[in-house]
Amino acid sequence: MTVLVTGGAGYIGSHMVLALRDAGREVVVLDNLSTGFRWAVHPEAAFVEGDCGDEALLGKVIREHGVDAIVHFAGSIVVPDSVADPLGYYLNNTVRSRALIAAAVANGVPRFLFSSTAAVYGDAKESPIIEAAPLDPVSPYGTSKLMTEMMLRDTARAHPLKYVALRYFNVAGADPAGRSGQSSPRATHLIKVATQAALGERTHLDVFGTDYPTPDGTCLRDYIHVSDLARAHVLALDYLAAGGESTVFNCGYGRGYSVLEVIEAVKRVSGVDFPVNHVPRRAGDPAALVAGAGRIRETLGWKPEFDHLDTIVAHALAWERSLAARRQAAE
Ligand SMILES: NC(=O)c1ccc[n+]([C@@H]2O[C@H](COP(=O)([O-])OP(=O)(O)OC[C@H]3O[C@@H](n4cnc5c(N)ncnc54)[C@H](O)[C@@H]3O)[C@@H](O)[C@H]2O)c1
Ligand SMILES: O=c1ccn([C@@H]2O[C@H](COP(=O)(O)OP(=O)(O)O[C@H]3O[C@H](CO)[C@H](O)[C@H](O)[C@H]3O)[C@@H](O)[C@H]2O)c(=O)[nH]1
């Protein structure tokens, strides 16, 4: 039987395909390559270029490959873009997810994992944030993901489909063996941008806000290594296959690092003291997002392997170096 990975040419999806192949699973990737890369797809995975909203194509792929589980990463991910183009985000993240869920039901696929986000909590009043915390997204991105969670909840009540929604906190790092990493040139994530500054690909790094109610005045985030996250998904598939009930898991380590602590780590690991400017707050950044991470450990027996900021940074830096070498070779 085969796992269908939508968005498997993207950052997190490509690591999921590695984890599935490492576990000996058959995989078919469906990706429209809007932000992903064909070269990022594992050579042993089947690849279909197409849209996860194309129900006819999905039915064909599910039947031809004998798909018995869907892991749904495909989507649009930039929070400020979702504020500027809400309908585009509701189309790509919500409407197309509906088509994928419908194809799963129509073709009798019994298991479904969904990439959700800590953005569903909005400006959380508590820290750490547990799964039962109020859901009140402050961006169309967060709302588009929460609506998909709700569609899954209601569909699983009406049909023989079981699902797990995984709410990721801040995903970072790269495959320890150097097989994949975050490759998008438009990435805005702190660790990615800081490694680019360390390698001289950016002149400096801006710190967005130093007046937050946190110990050093900068935002706290829970950074989770992408390979630990991928392994959590493999365990979630096993959980559903063993008869586990539909549920939601926070994905984080339960510890927050400030922006300044992350920058120090990148400087320490790279040995480069790049320029850092303190600038005003960026719109929409909550002061602290730290996962209450007990449920996933207890239910899945998930034990992170890379719960160490310097390790996450070292892997991200190694991948950034390999991207630079790839670019040089292409010139
Ligand atoms: N990166 C993070 O920190 C983070 C945090 C929380 C949640 N997530 C979620 O994880 C998932 C993967 O994120 P990522 O960081 O790997 O992003 P990414 O942009 O690298 O990957 C998304 C992939 O989906 C593909 N895609 C987009 N729309 C598609 C469509 N309609 N049909 C088929 N393919 C399509 C893209 O080409 C790309 O390969 C997303 O759903 C995102 O919302 C990411
Ligand atoms: O150049 C930068 C980039 C980021 N930051 C700061 O670093 C922190 C982390 O920012 P990221 O952009 O790396 O990540 P976010 O916390 O904004 O968001 C990420 O995690 C969220 C959940 O926690 C959502 O899932 C979202 O999709 C995903 O991009 C924030 O305080 C941000 O202001 C800077 O100071 N300078």
Automatic annotation (TrEMBL):
Record's catalysed reaction(s)? UDP-alpha-D-glucose = UDP-alpha-D-galactose
Q: Which residues form the NAD-dependent epimerase/dehydratase domain?
A: 3-252
SUPFAM superfamilies registered for this protein in UniProt: NAD(P)-binding Rossmann-fold domains
Q: What EC designation does it have?
A: 5.1.3.2
Gene Ontology MF terms in the entry: UDP-glucose 4-epimerase activity
Listed GO biological process terms: galactose catabolic process via UDP-galactose, Leloir pathway
List the Pfam families: Epimerase
Coiled-coil residues: none
Pathways involved = Carbohydrate metabolism; galactose metabolism
Keyword vocabulary terms for this entry: Carbohydrate metabolism, Isomerase, NAD, Plasmid
Q: What is the protein's quaternary organization?
A: Homodimer.
Give the family this protein belongs to, as stated in its UniProt record.
Answer: Belongs to the NAD(P)-dependent epimerase/dehydratase family.
Q: What is this protein called?
A: UDP-glucose 4-epimerase
Q: Which organism is it from?
A: Chelatococcus daeguensis
